[in-house]
Amino acid sequence: MSPGKPQLEQAFPSITTAGKNPTVRCILKGSVVSHHVLSWYRQIKGTEIQFLVSHRERSSPTYGDGIAHRFIPELLPLSNAFTLTIGNVEKADEGIYYCTIWFSNKYLFGEGTEIKVQG
C-alpha cells in the first residue's frame, strides 16, 4: 500500500435469516468518509459484479438499474464508516457485498462481506 491511500475494512461474513434486515458495514481508514462518493456492489455466485447504490453526504442515493429501494445506504461520519442495510432480505440477495470509494480516478474496493440467507 502506498502512503496516503485510503483503505476500506469490511466485517467478516455474516449469516442472516430471511425476512430480517442485515446491515453490512464498511470502515474507511486513511481518509474522511464525507469526502467521498460511497458505493456498494454485489457479486452473486456465477454472475458479474453488480452496482447497487452510491451516495455521498447531504445527497440522495443513486440506485443501479432495477435495484430496489430496500437497499438503504447510510453514512456514519462519527465512526468514519458507511453501511448498507438490506430490507426484508431474500434468498436471491445472497452474495458478497463490496463497499467502494472513488479515489484518484479509480474505485477502491473493500474485501467484501458475504451475506447468506438461511431458511
TrEMBL record:
PROSITE patterns: IG_LIKE. Keywords: Adaptive immunity, Disulfide bond, Glycoprotein, Immunity, Immunoglobulin domain, Membrane, Signal, Transmembrane, Transmembrane helix. Signal peptide: none annotated. GO terms for molecular function: coreceptor activity; MHC class I protein binding. It is found in: Membrane. The keyword Disulfide bond applies. InterPro entries: CD8B, Ig-like_dom, Ig-like_dom_sf, Ig-like_fold, Ig_sub, Ig_V-set. SMART domains: IG, IGv. Gene3D superfamilies: Immunoglobulins. Residues 6-101 form the Ig-like domain. One of its GO terms (biological process) is adaptive immune response. It is a single-pass type I membrane protein. One of its GO terms (cellular component) is cell surface. This is Ig-like domain-containing protein.
